[in-house]
Fold:
Amino acid sequence: MIKTYKVMLLPNNKQQTKLFQCAGVARWAYNFALAQQQENYKQGGKFLKDGEIRKKLTKLKQTKEYHWLNLFSNNITKQAIKDACIAYKNFFEGRTKFPKFKTKKRTRPSFYQDTAKIKVTDTHVKLEKLTPSKKKNKQKFNWIRLAERGRIPYGKQVKYVNPRIVFDGLHWFLTIGVEEVEQKHDAYTEGIGVDVGIKSLATVSNGMTFSNIHHMPKVKKLEKQIKRLQRKLSRKYEMNKVQTEGGEFRYSKTENIKKLEFLLLKRRRRLKNIQLNYTHYITTTLVKTKPAYVVMEDLNTSGMLKNKKLSKAIQQQTFHEFKRQMAYKCAWHGIQFILADRFYPSSKTCSRCGHVKEKLSLSERMYRCETCGIEIDRDFNASINLKNYVQSIAQH
Structure:
């Protein structure tokens, strides 16, 4: 089983400059490979393998114009070319859209590190060829400090998978996969059903309820700050709007606009981190109860977003992220993760007698059964039905 770790880096100014340069080299190599594939296709040629494109790049490195590529790790360009070829192949096999050229403005800076060359300690990570010098005092430049101590496993027996250095607009991160053994508990409790919604993010069949974090004063205050900054930034854009000779409008960015953009990015990132942290807290809490299985609904989120009145509230809840975290954390601990059928009537079914209602409006927060007369919270009722979903599958 491969477990992925994401840890923030704390590079100094010189190291940060070098990291941006490495990301630029990866972007250039990706665009070079994509251009080669397109040119080859126009001339009627077949798909070029990444090995053929790398041979062309090796010849370019020998020229004076592209000699600067030798200052960077060969593995950066090698993996970027491979990524471009995979993206190009996926398009012709119908899996993705046609790959676009990467731009400095719209592309997230990132690059690859070789698994054999990267070294991790308790506090630092060593990257390949950040400095061309082989002197011991200069080699310290290759070691970048980690923000979290002892987070990533290290040692001779540890095997790393696909290490990447990524910039998210504020900070640099190291994402790295580690091969680990699957954990199994000695004793599991009974299974649980988890119903996700807007009023409460998660209602569990064992009685646990996790409220909507967006109703908290802390989050509401942050959302108000973001709205105000967006309005302020919009006014600044309008003040600096310039009309070109062709009649089109463009925005000239001043220092004040750049400061506002950075401040807005920090607020948005803070809100996102609060949401992500809360989701991690819920999923980890549920996994620690050691259930035999976890059942969740396979929600049609894209269809739910068409509801104009509730689209924002649904989007804020990040149901897909909740399901993703639940799935991989269950896999880590040897817990069976089950997705109930999309058309399974978990909310309309009575958890006591099994009667199914024909209609159940969203405003009805209490489930009242017409057959047995039970009155129960609709979300809690749905979670119990999801827990019993395994039995209904076994009967059919």
In short: Residues 100 and 133 are 36 Å apart (CA to CA). Residues 2-179 form one domain. DSSP finds eleven helices and 16 strands in the chain. The mean pLDDT is 90.
